[in-house]
Amino acid sequence: MPLTELVAFAIGALRGHRLRTFLSVAGVAVGIAAVVALTALGEGARQYVVQEFSSLGTNLLIVIPGKVETTGMMPFGGTTNDLTLDDYRAVATRIPLVVEAAPLATGTEVIRAEGRSRSVAVFGTTAELARVRRLVVGSGRFLPSGDSDRGGSEVVLGLKVAQELFGAVSPLGKVVRIGEWRFRVVGVLAPRGRSLGFDFDDIVFIPVRTSMRMFNRSSLFRILVEVGSEGNLTPAKKAVIELLAERHRTEDVTVITQDAVVSTFNSVFNVLTLALVAIASVSLTVAGVGIMNVMLVAVAERRREIGLLKALGATTRQVLAVFIAEASVLSSLGGALGLAVGWLSIRAFVQVYPTFPAAPPTWAVVASLVVSLGVGVVFGAVPARRAAKLDPVQALVGR
Amino acid sequence: MEPSTIDCRLSTLGPLGFPGIDLIPGVVAMIELKNLWRTYQVGDSEVHALHGVDLDIARGDYLAVIGPSGSGKSTLLNILGCLDRPTAGSYAFDGRDVGQLSDLERTQLRQNQIGFVFQFFHLLARLTAQGNVELPMLFAGVSRAERRTRAAEALASVGLSDRAHHRPDQLSGGQRQRVAIARAVVMGPGLVLADEPTGNLDRASAFEVMDLLDAMNRRGQTVVLVTHDPEVAGRARNTVRMDDGEIVERS
Q: Which site from A101, A232, A242, A320 is most exposed, i.e. has the minimal number of CB atoms within 10 Å?
């Protein structure tokens, strides 16, 4: 009996019991839709976080003063050397793997202009930061390049700072006061929004040397180092540590990589997605048991038909095949419907939250289809075996 | 089934469009039953539906089995149709010992050599008359096109060409039984077993059905008929009367 004939016969039988067919198809559909939608959300959350980190600049090394380690009592040693601008220049110029590096010194200060004032985070840095951190300037330009030791009185405003202080008026060329210091506005950043809980629109950038004087600091807060590719991260990290250890005569800095953070989040979200899959699998299993029930009822109700088919010359294997075909048709229909429902609900979700990149991963779609077919075959097998083993006489008289 | 056997049967189509089987009636015993027992276990007690039935049925015979309810008629018919196995005794079909056949071989025997007509028709409600007649061919692996042609021929031979696309609930009882007869003969079986074929029909329909069974027999098909109705039994060439699981009279 060719497969097409078998499927046609199965569909005919299913059409004869529309309500029952609909219920079991719906059961599988809910299971598959749940798998698709939940994995899409999990995958979306993962992508969202990875994207957020990438937007900070990839292939980034972050140099922090101080060594993160547990040590014993060291009464006369163990002091931490400052991370100086000279250190920064050494890192930027003497390590070939370093493509770009930018120093960072921070503090909080009150900024005043046009009779208004606002407390902002002040970042002291150099022109290189714009490239390292992928900063986009909306109007004017970023800090002037040149000697990092030069100081200077230029300031670049975050968009929100600019709007709060100047309203609709362009702040370019205007003078602002930060604490007791006077600055001239050279640029305003393009809107960037909140990222990982930090408002990039509510900050100002000034030359690094000026900020160190302003906040009376001898040490940088961070050195950000961009290396050419992901493969360069480890050797570059080693080179930076060695260079600074040589300069400080002790290893007293910590270097972390963005990708370590990203991969941690990645694995967290992979576990989350797997957990969602596990939850969805439960509903798929429930759907499978539903199919089994439906098929068992079908076998009980159709004893006469089974007896007749056998009397007419259907072999045990053919009866088995007919019932497995029915279960498979049920679950494939359910799978297709579930995919459609899952996909549509994800589309609707993305319409509402366009920034959330929710999309079901291919493996989840493929796996859920395979599983739904498998569910049909596996859970259809028990009732089908029961049907095939029915004694034709007993089945025909309906005892 | 291999296509060659199908071709073979098609080439020996009888006068009504059915395949003729063995056109020399009465020469070979088609069925030989020797000391056949069938015992059911009902609770603690054993019920002997058949005890010690000896019966030969010649090829081309037209045999009526009569007797009261519970006399073992239907049990006998089920064993003849390979739907049931005897508890003891032997059953030979065309010289083959049916007791030695595997499940699959018995199924193939039913498929190719035996046609069934039931009291309650047993048509599938979701299929048209055409679809019901095609069923045995579906499981025998006959191609779709050939199934169409042969089912149409079989329906024509029972006078139901114009009802081919009606479902059973759109047909009268007599028409349903005629569809069942078309289904029984569409594979060209040598043996047709009818269990109370007129039991559920009015007189006019019963006559139509009996005419069809007569015609089958005239074409050389062996017909075994179980009935209560003496008038129906009178159509048959031979009659056996059963009582309490035994054959008590042969004529």
A: A242
**C-alpha R_g of chain B:** 18
CB contact (8 A) between residue B124 and residue A308: yes
Residue A41 lies in a domain: yes
What is the residue whose two structure tokens read 């980034």?
A60
Chain A CB contacts of B86 below 8 Å = none
Note whether residue A130 is domain-resident.
yes
CB A96 within 8 A of CB A126: no
- For B111-141, write each residue's pLDDT tens digit: 889 999 988 888 988 899 999 999 999 988 8
- Answer whether residue A35 is part of any domain: yes
Report the domain count for chain A: 2
> Could you tell me the CA-to-CA distances from A90 to A131, A156, A162, A176, A240 in Å, in that order?
19, 26, 35, 33, 9
CB contact (8 A) between residue B135 and residue A305? no
Is this complex scored with an ipTM above 0.85?
A: no
3-class DSSP assignment, residue B79 = helix
Cβ contacts from A onto B, under 8 A = 62
Task: Looking at the structure, tell me whether residues A210 and A85 fall in a common domain.
Answer: yes
Residue A228: give the domain boundaries: 81-251
User: Which residue spans within A95-247 are E strands per DSSP?
Assistant: 98-113, 116-125, 137-140, 154-157, 175-178, 181-189, 194-195, 198-199, 203-207, 222-227
What is the distance in angstroms between the Cα of A377 and the nearest Cα belonging to chain B? 21
> A234 and A117: one domain?
yes
Q: Could you read off the pLDDT of A12-25 as tens digits, one per residue? A: 888 878 888 888 88
Does A313 reach chain B within 8 Å, measured CB to CB? yes
Residue A296 CB neighbours (<10 A):
17
Helical ranges in A233-361 per DSSP H: 233-248, 258-301, 303-311, 316-352
Among B87, B107, B126, B167, the strongest candidate for a mutation testing the A interface, having the largest count of A CBs within 10 A, is B107
Domains annotated for chain B, with CATH where assigned, are: 3-25+61-85+101-250 (3.40.50.300)
Lookup: tokens for A323:
């019932």
Q: Measured between CB atoms, does A215 come within 8 Å of chain B?
A: no
Examine the domain organization and report whether A243 and A111 are in the same domain. Answer: yes
